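Dear support,

I submitted the protein below through the web form. The confirmation email said the job was done, but the results page showed an empty box. After a refresh the structure appeared. I'm attaching both so you can tell me whether what I see now is the final result or a partial one.
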Amino acid sequence: MKITGVRTKPFEMILDRPLGDANGPAGRRQMSSLAVFIDTDEGITGIALGSPAARSHIHALVTELLVGHDPRGVRGLWKKMVDFAFKGGNKGVINDAIGAIDVALWDAKAKANDEPLWKTLGASTRRVKAYASGIDLCLTDEGIAAFYGEMASQGISAGKLKVGLDREMDLRRLGIMRDALATSGRTPVLLIDSNEYWSPKQAIRNIQFLEQHYEITWAEEPARRWDYRGLRKVSESIRAAVATGENLDDISEFMPLVANEAADVLNIGSGSSGITGALQIADLAYAFEIPVTMMNCPGNFMAHLAAALPNHWMMEVVGAGREKVFKKVDNHIEDGWIVLGDAPGLGLEFDDAVLDRSTAEIPTAGSRATLWGRRRGAGLFEVGPNEPEWPEE
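What the results page shows now:
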């Protein structure tokens, strides 16, 4: 089997609800993405989702490096691409491109094996523990109750609340999430995420305040992603575990966190340089007895890797309607677990009609390539959720 080429199609969609965090509390409902197809001479096509900003890199990498190679040699092809990016480093847009290609190659490999990816990756179970994540700073109290209540009806008892701009509001909303999750019939597991908005000292003050009222299992990104000194200080000063890594690209960026005992939990996902890169980071964490959690993704396709990791804890489930681009998603949530199916590959199939209707060669103003800038005041002073992001001239 040989790779013959790559096709991509940028698209936009309106989500079922807005998503927002401390850096974008108003939230956004428009999403910009890229459908990726890697074709072979045997009629097998590997698919993935990518960033529209990485489109030209995806075409260049496949055309220059991968055409004519067997897609089943995924890890070797990953190394070939990373070596190609050596001078600039496996970071940013080039990492986005490598990650999307890597996912598509794993999809093709499992399809060639005529088995689901979780089996190709060596998993012995099709089940992955799930936690609910509303990306919900933009939601009303009623919206939070409704979202986590719906997740609880599917047996999910763990939830992650976006916090960071108003500790009294965070406390109130944490109680609403807890009460909604309790309807699952299980003891709620409470997680918080401030998305790097706080400085380490701000994080310690605010998390200690919340911990006077609730037991928090982990605090995600309480300080900047690379600040191993600050993250370690937070970890030493609170009862909750410190989780981070969502916005790191490569295993080299995780090594200082591990070496300096700065993270109690590592967040990985397809953005961690694809399935191959995330697998390497999970192995690093396993060597140091650090658990990993899988970040959210449309169609929960990264659950295939999570199922194969001995140190995987829980996977983030958002459920905001991003799956509308797929005609088929071969997994479902049952009793608090993502249950993977037996369809070959990722178990995903794009809906061509939806892609055709949603094609957008240039993202509109409301559907930027990235939704998540950094809000004014971050790390210095806390700007309330109802205050303007930038003061008027």
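Response: this is the final, complete result; the empty box was a page-load delay. Residues 3-115+354-358 form a domain with the Enolase-like; domain 1 fold (CATH 3.30.390.10).
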